[in-house]
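Whiteboard transcription, Tuesday session. T.W. wrote the structure tokens on the left side:
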């Protein structure tokens, strides 16, 4: 039978989710900085770039970085709180 998860405790869960939100805020800032650097690099080119290319680049890079950060954050939260150990191997 599975043991009780540490995330069942409201205080521990609130701390873990707050840490996840801080990590996502940091990842959002890194994503925006990366997009700004990529757009600056595009702007230095000699050939004009379509607005559609900027949109596709922003969506591709932005979604990929934020999704990666969110999923890795959930892995870290699950492991860091002891939630992984609460799962039984029966």
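and on the right, the sequence the group agreed on:
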């Amino acid at each position: 039978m599975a043991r009780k998860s540490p995330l069942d405790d409201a205080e521990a869960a609130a701390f873990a989710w707050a840490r996840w939100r801080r990590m996502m805020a940091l990842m959002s800032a890194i994503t925006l900085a990366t997009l700004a650097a990529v757009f600056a690099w595009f702007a230095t080119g000699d050939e004009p770039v379509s607005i559609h290319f900027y949109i596709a680049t922003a969506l591709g890079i932005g979604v990929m970085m934020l999704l990666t950060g969110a999923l890795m954050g959930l892995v870290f939260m699950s492991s860091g709180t002891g939630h992984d150990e609460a799962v039984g191997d029966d």
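Someone added at the bottom: Helices lie at 10-43, 51-80.
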